[in-house]
């Protein structure tokens, strides 16, 4: 079994005024894996990296 080095569960970001950026995002990264986060401008991909 691979060693899990990062786990994100139920990540949700709602901006003031009720603007929903991301809802219930879940993912994990195992040791040795390479992942890419890709999204169009305004898709909410930056919010996963910097949720605050």
Automatic annotation (TrEMBL):
Presence of the UniProt keyword Transport in the record: yes
The keyword Repeat is assigned to this record: yes
Keywords from the UniProt entry: ATP-binding, Nucleotide-binding, Repeat, Transport
Gene3D superfamilies to which the protein is assigned, alphabetical: P-loop containing nucleotide triphosphate hydrolases
Top-level taxonomic group: Bacteria
MF terms (GO), sorted A to Z: ATP binding
Signal peptide region: none
Name listed for the protein in its UniProt record: L-arabinose transporter ATP-binding protein
């Amino acid at each position: 079994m691979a060693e899990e080095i990062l786990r994100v569960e139920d990540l949700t970001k709602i901006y003031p005024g009720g603007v929903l950026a991301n809802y219930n995002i879940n993912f994990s990264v195992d040791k040795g894996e390479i992942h890419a986060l890709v999204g169009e401008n305004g898709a909410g991909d930056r919010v996963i990296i910097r949720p605050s």
